[in-house]
Amino acid sequence: xxxxxxxxxxxxxxxxxxxxxxxxxxxxxxxxxxxxxxxxxxxxxxxxxxxxxxxxxxxxxxxxxxxxxxxxxxxxxxxxxxxxxxxxxxxxxxxxxxxxxxxxxxxxxxxxxxxxxxxxxxxxxxxxxxxxxxxxxxxxxxxxxxxxxxxxxxxxxxxxxxxxxxxxxxxxxxxxxxxxxxxxxxxxxxxxxxxxxxxxxxxxxxxxxxxxxxxxxxxxxxxxxxxxxxxxxxxxxxxxxxxxxxxxxxxxxxxxxxxxxxxxxxxxxxxxxxxxxxxxxxxxxxxxxxxxxxxxxxxxxxxxxxxxxxxxxxxxxxxxxxxxxxxxxxxxxxxxxxxxxxxxxxxxxxxxxxxxxxxxxxxxxxxxxx
Length: 370
Fold this sequence. Notes:
alpha/beta, TIM Barrel, 9 helices, carbohydrate metabolism, N-acetylglucosamine-6-phosphate deacetylase activity, GlcNAc_6-P_deAcase, hydrolase, metal ion binding
């Protein structure tokens, strides 16, 4: 049965004051173009897309046994309509256990949950010298291990350190296999980053974090990203990255997209949780290892949008960072935009950007508690 939503609708052509009709797909958008949202009117936006999410609602993707359902429901309740289930660096059997669960959820979306579009394999093919909050199971990537994991659940994005011996050739294989290689958890130089991009790397994992920093005589991986990348992730919880650095990345990287990098503590009270094999503590708006290292986040995408607007980014541009750019990166042409025939992945927010409705492929989602 067709449903209708009225308000200021953000289409690829701009704002329309009117009505959006939909079932599982968008069937009509009727109204009058306006230059900006009208005061007092709700805003109707494309659903958020999170390419890097480890957990939420007390569950971690690495738990398996239905954990991804909990994660996908928690984030759907905050406006995320599709996501990539993201793994941790771990022994092979642990990753296989997690991916078997993700594959099940991909085959049939659980009710009330975001669509799981695939896997972001963050590790184990990273530099052991730049683990960040990843456990110490880093190893060199092999085609054999990749093939086994990919058969369990489709890998869409894979984070790796390109300076590790053999990884430039591995990047070339990933591209042939249709997997997007991302540079991250890397001690590599600017030159290593450029070489990786030339080999086929497509983006950078949580830009600025867990990679060699920008210095004017040693530009590092950050310099390679700012100089050459079309796509890169950034975590806009305002803890991982300073607002000025987010602004810098926006000017340099045409299709910067936001991720939460959220963990089991997202949507939960302060306390102790786990991230892969690590024990982490949620407090003061973040999540950390015992030594104080940031260990993912407790960010949700509705808050990510509000954070971007709070630092002066216009709403229509902020929406591209939490939705459309990630869809473009993944090649998802019927998500991340409100247009005829697109999936009815829809977020409705009040004028002060509080979430009021979320629809995943036309299904009304129960919103999470604030």
